[in-house]
Amino acid sequence: MRDILDVITSRKSIRRYKPDPVPDEMIDKILEAARWAPTGENHQPWRLIVVRDPETRRKIGEMAKIGSGIFTTTEYCMGRMRQFEGIKDPKKRERVERFMYTGEVSAFLGKAPLLIVVTGRCDALDTPYDLSACAENMLLEAHSLGLGACWVHGPVAPIRGEIKMKELLGVPQGMEKFKLLAVLSFGWPLEPRKHPRPKLTLEEIVYWEKFGRKERPSYV
Predict the structure, then answer these.
(1) Interatomic CA distance for residues 187 and 114, integer angstroms
(2) What's the rounded Cα separation, in Å, for the pair 172 and 163?
(3) CB-based burial of residue 205 (10 Å sphere; 0-12 exposed, 13-18 middle, 19+ buried)?
(4) Can you tell me the distance from the alpha carbon of 199 to that of 206, in angstroms, rounded to the nearest whole number?
(5) How many angstroms from the chain centroid is the CA of residue 47?
């Protein structure tokens, strides 16, 4: 059996896809992976909407652009988009920042051959965590099948965006009924997969016994 860590460490977000459709048998495997996600008290709040209709995908892409634009413009105006300061070329940095705060970064959803909208019942406190585990299972299964995938919360980040998305997909309105967590895109990668971006080391993120303690204690 393939070590799941190999799947996790080689996965990356893919936003550019070939127009080829995702086969039904692969869609079923992705959905089956979602079904087996961990869930508090076996609540299983998730409801998954598979979207392949071109017009619906186009509308979701437009909503994603607007939603991500609102979110990243706020971050830009507040000086929080510090992650691009490492780009030395000022023209390239300006181009990347514009790509983000205009919302273009999420507009690709309209061209992805397959979307799965992750929503769930709001009758338990665990729902956001359960839905996140469900979404991650789908991303990992897609990668193991050779597909590209990406998690996008842009369309549903603003409350108005969530309301419009619910209208489009027929999801019952009311924040107390169903929560829209994200839209996941899937498809065959347009280009060869590059290695994922570097991650922080374990030494930078792990503490032992107490916050800030770097030394691993001996338990022998």
Answers:
(1) 6
(2) 9
(3) exposed
(4) 13
(5) 16
| Amino acid residing at 95 | R
pLDDT tens per residue across span 115-142: 999 999 998 889 999 999 999 999 999 9
Reading the block at residue 4, the tokens are 């799941």
Amino acid identity of residue 135, one-letter, is A
Quick one: pLDDT band at residue 83, thresholds 50, 70, 90? low
Query: In a 10 Å sphere around its CB, with 0-12 CB exposed, 13-18 middle and 19+ buried, how is residue 60 labelled?
Result: buried
Measured at the CA of 100, the angle between CA 147 and CA 205, to 5 degrees, comes to 70
* The pair of three-digit structure tokens given for residue 140, joined into one six-digit string: 């990992």
- Ordered by where they begin, the domains of the chain are 4-205 (3.40.109.10)
Alpha-carbon distance of 87 to 96, in angstroms, equals 9
